[in-house]
Amino acid sequence: MSTQEQSTAAASETYSPDVVVVGAGTAGCYAAATVAREGYDVVILERKTEEEAGHIACGDALKGADAFPDSIPKSQIESAFTNTGVDHGRFEIPQEDTVLEIPIPGELAVIDRWEYGRLIIEGAADAGADLHYDTVVKNVTQADDGRVTGVEAVRKGDARTYEADVVIDAAGSLSVLQDNVDFSTSTFDTNVNYSHFCSAYREIVHVDEPVEWDDALVFKPTERAAGYLWYFPRTETEINAGLGFQMTEEPMKLVDDLKRDLQNRAEFRGAEVEDKLGAALPTRRPYDSAVHPGYVAVGDAAGHVNPTTGGGIAGAAYAGKYAAEAIVEGLEDGDVGEKALWEYNERVMDHFGARYAALDVYNILSTAVDVDDLMGLLAAMPGEKLAEALYSGSTSISPMLAIESLYKSRDHWGTIWNLFRTKRRADELLELYEHYPNHPAALEHWQQRRDDIMDDVYETTGAEPKY
Q1: What's the longest Cα–Cα distance across the chain?
Q2: Which of 30, 96, 121, 440 has the fewest beta carbons closer than 10 A?
Q3: DSSP β-bridge partners for residue 43
Q4: pTM here?
Q5: Mind listing the pLDDT tens digit for each residue in 46-80?
Q6: Are 184 and 146 in contact (CB under 8 A)?
């Protein structure tokens, strides 16, 4: 070791908790709270200041508001639920001069995301987790056998080393931690690139008069096929207005679409805009495996987001819980290897991962279909069936509904036939994911079967391969 390296090592402050969580978002906080409640030492590393922690770009819409893990009691976060009266989606389709009112299954809410962020951090701290703010992780440490042993970080210019039995990666989309881990000794999913992600931008808009659609989540396609606009009412007069678009698109041109739409909507005349933020989120299937010896990825860092809607709060909370429970069991048994942590992968796939993988097939289809044809088809579909497709990954249509839909969409029969064939592929994929392997050694064979179905998806849709 050089003199400079010795000096740096001497200046580095060392901490040795049982578990280190990188990121104080939903997945990280629920994971930390679950571990801490079992009596283990857990530290959350958060790059933001204490005042800014929890402040992230988000659509603020929450599906599954009635179902959260109890490691942070729901009563502790309910004050952030600013609108619990939303009960449906409002799809505006200007190409067809149509507005679709679509029921959305499950309990809905629109939240104040910053207040929610503060409350889940408070909940993790109440459970016993230690919060280290202003802390930026720079590297991940590994043993000779590949096991992750901790992280190296910097806090206000001072080096810090965290040695831990397990590192939980809750660092969000395109996590930098994954760039620094050698995953060659495990099945951790490294088939990830920027094209699997969406950029999102949102503004909080205050209007003078209550909007007429305060009970709805409003969606509208952008002028380009690669994105959509949203208007989610936090209250009758406070609206989260934003858009999401694939990272392959130029962001400023699409932000102009949002600004133009805001200017053209009567309800936003004279509105005040504040708190502009952007972020990235996954629009892909969940990671095939999110575990490695001594290391687990959760939430956005593992692709745990509905790829058709961008919703990921409730799923992230449960991913954090499932990961933490597998880790606690591993700590008790003295084994935090890949096989010992594997149950976490299974629980994610069983709860929501299989559905999300099937929904990703429709994302792939959308890249190969003309946007006007797609909007025309959506306008002709029965609303409740469209809702099923958006949230369950599959749907069924009775013969009478099929005839009605075919009549309404007679100008889009080619697209319908393509959609029907794609649905069959999505159903096959959903069934395969429901038989996700129960140990790492079986993953490769399962992936081969999945990739065969995906080859059929690309052939059916005419889309370019995504993975």
Answers
A1: 80
A2: 96
A3: 20, 130
A4: 0.90
A5: 999 999 999 999 999 998 878 899 999 999 999 99
A6: yes
